[in-house]
Structures are given as structure tokens and as C-alpha cells.
Design brief:
Shape: globular
Strand content: 15-25%
Number of helices: 4
Structural class: alpha/beta
Order of helices and strands: HEHEHEH
Number of strands: 3
Largest sheet: 3 strands, parallel
Length: 78
């Protein structure tokens, strides 16, 4: 949360599976308690596992790996 407060991003690109104690979904839920910054989830896992959970969190989008820069930019600008 400190990095978000310090940097004040316009959008957050967040992987669903992390090598930490929290998933990207859990981090996004924590972010939502304090900020309404758009979040784009990214993952290589099966879409049926993550898509519905991703859209349960407000103000989010979802893109599967591998993705290109153009796809991310278009999602950010739309």
C-alpha cells in the first residue's frame, strides 16, 4: 500500500499468481479498501478459474498470458 500511496499509479497490472503469501486477487481486494485505481489482472492459468473471480472485484479487467504491449495499452485506454 505504501508504494501505491507514494507512486500514485493510474493503473495497476497485477499477476494473479504470486510467489508471496497473498494472491493477486487478495492484494486487489486490499487495494479496493483504499483506492479505486483500475486493475488489470494478468495470468497464464485456465480462464475459467480466474475470470469470474477477477470481475467480482470492482473496476478491473483481465488479460491472459502471453499478451502483447498493444493489447495492454488498448485495455488501459478503453
Amino acid at each position: 500500500m505504501k508504494e501505491i500511496a507514494d507512486f500514485q499509479p493510474d493503473v495497476i497490472l497485477l499477476d494473479v499468481l504470486l510467489n508471496d503469501s497473498m494472491t493477486g486477487f487478495e492484494i486487489a481486494e486490499e487495494i479496493r479498501l483504499h483506492y479505486s485505481i483500475p486493475i488489470i489482472f494478468t495470468t497464464g492459468i485456465e480462464p475459467s478459474i480466474g475470470i469470474s473471480k477477477a470481475f467480482d472485484i470492482s473496476y478491473t479487467d483481465y488479460v491472459r498470458k502471453p499478451y502483447g504491449t498493444t493489447e495492454i495499452v488498448k485495455r488501459i485506454l478503453s
